[in-house]
Amino acid sequence: MDARQRPYRSVLYIPGSKERALEKAKTLPVDAIIFDLEDAVSVDEKENARETLKAALAAGGYGDRVKIVRINGFDTPWGRDDAAAVADMDADVVLLPKVGSTDDLDALAAVTGDLPIWAMMETPRGMLNAPLIAAHPRMQGFVMGTNDLAKELQTRFRLDRLPLQTSLGLCLLAAKAEGLIIVDGVYNAFKDDEGLRAECEQGRDMGFDGKTLIHPAQVDVTNEAFAPSEAEIDLARRQIIAFEETEAAGQGVAVVDGKIVENLHVATAREILAKAEAIAALAS
Ligand SMILES: CC(C)(COP(=O)(O)OP(=O)(O)OC[C@H]1O[C@@H](n2cnc3c(N)ncnc32)[C@H](O)[C@@H]1OP(=O)(O)O)[C@@H](O)C(=O)NCCC(=O)NCCSC(=O)C[C@H](O)C(=O)O
Ligand SMILES: [Mg+2]
User: Fold this and answer.
1) Residue-number span of the structural domain to which 251 is assigned
2) Which terminus of the chain has a lower count of CB atoms within 10 Å, N or C?
3) What residues line ligand 1, using a CB cutoff of 6 Å?
4) Same domain, yes or no, for 114 and 217?
């Protein structure tokens, strides 16, 4: 399946050093996994985590889940060795943290070659350079790093995420302009289902493909929020039928449930059905 066509509802971080979690992930219905060598791994564990992860990926068992490896930045003692190791691992994507400019991406691509790159968007400079970062030839996806971003912007936590809206919007615009995948940041309170649901729904309504997660308990809520609902699927089917009938009668505008349906709405309806089918195919 083409990378852009597949679902990215739930994207789970797993510390590369935690063998038990690496094993557990094989049983979880997540669309993608971020195997982390950066912030979830302590300084003392950095070298071990690289080896543990390499062995886990070589052993396999992750099925259809997209395998993304987050390395340390090139401004750390581990970044270059991580990148060289990832180039040799069974990974689908390399994820670079704290991307500030396309120079960071060029340096990584020089080591990882054709491997698709995703960028952690989590610094003020990254926000300002988002269109250039999105247009890099190896770039395939953006991950919002809302914890680092909040720290750098010195914002306070708010349920409505108002202080982050400009940054989220800039990254969404840049990603959509280049046809990238874009997934939202983590919700830290991993036992708060209602808070998670509200943040998922906000991210979904803004146009994110899915959300990054830190704990297995967050998977079900997220998968549900980012999948088309039965009502949306039903409406999409009725819009397509109504528009085709209208077109056959030589008209350009149908009406469904009191609202107009034009060819652009039909394109959205077809995307909804394609997404529902892709999710069903993953589950089967
Ligand atoms: C938050 C945790 C430290 C909690 O871990 P733990 O106490 O082990 O939780 P549980 O006992 O409830 O775990 C139950 C079972 O689930 C497995 N588990 C836990 N977390 C994960 C996971 N992330 N992936 C897979 N499996 C997981 C446990 O092993 C238990 O399994 P079993 O015993 O077999 O039943 C922990 O969840 C954790 O470390 N989470 C990840 C934290 C992380 O990755 N942080 C970095 C990413 S966030 C970030 O950096 C975003 C960005 O950069 C930004 O700036 O915003
Ligand atoms: Mg971060």
Assistant:
1) 230-283
2) C
3) 12-15, 20-21, 24-25, 36, 39-40, 120, 122, 145-148, 185-186, 214-216
4) yes
